[in-house]
């Protein structure tokens, strides 16, 4: 008996999931920065940390959901 079933996630889906993961890492990287407990740093409220980084990470998570649900067209 030979089982000819494959997993539900194909190569294209795995590639798209990896791309989404990279986008999430970029978003988290944009949210990082130096932090000191000695002196107040107003840069923690910058556009990059408060708005841009979370938006990019959020779109990465949405893209991963799309990548999981994506079904390639059959020829």
Task: Describe this protein's structure.
- The chain has 75 residues and is an all-alpha fold.
- The two termini are 28 Å apart.
- Helix 1 packs antiparallel against helix 2 (47-69).
- It is rod-shaped.
- It has helices spanning 11-31, 47-69.
- It has one domain.
- The model has no long low-confidence stretch (mean pLDDT 86).
Entry keywords:
single chain; 75 residues; mainly alpha; 0% strand; rod-shaped
Strand and helix layout:
Layout: H1 11-31, H2 47-69
Helix pairs in contact: 1-2
Quickly describe the structure:
The chain has 75 residues and is mostly helical. The protein is 59% helix and 0% strand.
Number of domains: 1
The portion of residues assigned to helices is 55-70%
Task: List low-confidence stretches.
Answer: none
Number of helices: 2
Major β-sheet, in short? none
Quick one: how many beta strands? 0
Radius of gyration: 19 Å
């Amino acid at each position: 008996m030979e089982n000819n079933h494959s997993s539900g996630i194909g190569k294209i889906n795995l590639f798209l999931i990896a791309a989404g993961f990279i986008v999430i890492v970029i978003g988290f990287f944009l949210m990082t920065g130096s932090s000191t407990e000695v002196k107040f740093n107003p840069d923690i409220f910058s556009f990059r940390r408060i708005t841009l980084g979370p938006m990019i990470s959020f779109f990465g998570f949405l893209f991963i959901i799309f990548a999981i649900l994506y079904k390639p067209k059959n020829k």
